[in-house]
Amino acid sequence: MSYSLMVVIDDESGEDGAPCPFCERVPVWLAAGGRHPTLSELADLSIIGVEGWDAWLGNDAPPLVNNRLRLQGWQAPGLLRMTWNAEYEHREIHGVPRVGCMEYSGTVEFEGIRLNVDSPSDADHVIASIWGEQQLQQLEREDGDWLVLRELHPALQSKMPDALGRWLAGFPPLATLRRKLLPVSYRPKALS
């Protein structure tokens, strides 16, 4: 399980070099003492001095280091208040390294807990086994559309390069149905 974070600044966020701070891996698990916090614990969590971040100032922009994240409670279901500070290194025209600072303070949307399961009943079981039945009751569940994963027939795999094989795996006559996964999302029902 991983935790991610993305702050959209304006319409250009996500373009090459435009500010759009994001983190593919926020070390929530480590900051919470090696376990996944409940939603009420998450809302008051501070992640300071913890290694394991994979954060960037934006697409094709420098990495963010010395990350510090303070979550400051639920503003409404699905909306968290937070402050995120970090530093990044960039170069001036003459190639002299310079450290810049990034700070975001405000409200972010909590998009929920997402997982892919083999069976619809597995999703509730996973959530309850990690956080307990009481936490599960505080969440609203939304099922997505089934994902079909395909794999090339073994006889074809050995006869073609990897990239071509992955491309052809999307064509049903050449592929064997491997398994189906159901994407499931959970969002908070009410403030806790």
Characterise this structure.
This protein is α+β, with helices and mostly antiparallel strands and 192 residues long. The chain is 19% helix and 42% strand. The chain is built from six helices and eleven strands. A four-stranded antiparallel sheet has the order 3-5-6-7, with no helix packed on it. A hairpin with a 2-residue loop joins strand 5 and strand 6. The longest helix is centred in the middle third of the chain and has 12 residues. The chain is globular and about 60 Å long. The chain starts with a strand and ends with a strand. 15% of the residues are buried. About 3% of the residues have low confidence.
List keywords for this structure.
192 residues, alpha+beta, four-stranded antiparallel sheet, globular
Itemize the secondary structure elements and their pairings.
Elements: E1 5-6, E2 22-25, H1 28-31, H2 39-42, E3 46-48, E4 54-56, E5 65-76, E6 79-91, E7 97-109, E8 113-117, H3 120-131, H4 133-137, E9 139-143, E10 147-152, H5 154-157, H6 162-168, E11 175-188
Antiparallel strand pairs: 1-2, 2-4, 3-5, 5-6, 6-7, 8-11, 9-11, 10-11
**How many strands in all?**
11
Distance separating the two termini: 22 Å
Name the strands of the widest sheet in spatial order.
3-5-6-7
In angstroms, what is the radius of gyration? 21 Å
Order of helices and strands: EEHHEEEEEEHHEEHHE
How many helical stretches?
Answer: 6
Strand content: 35-45%
* Average of per-residue pLDDT values: 82
Question: Class by helix and strand content?
Answer: alpha+beta
What characteristic shape results from the CA principal axes? globular
Largest sheet: 4 strands, antiparallel
The residue fraction in helices comes out at 10-25%
Contiguous runs where pLDDT drops below 50 for at least 5 residues: 164-169
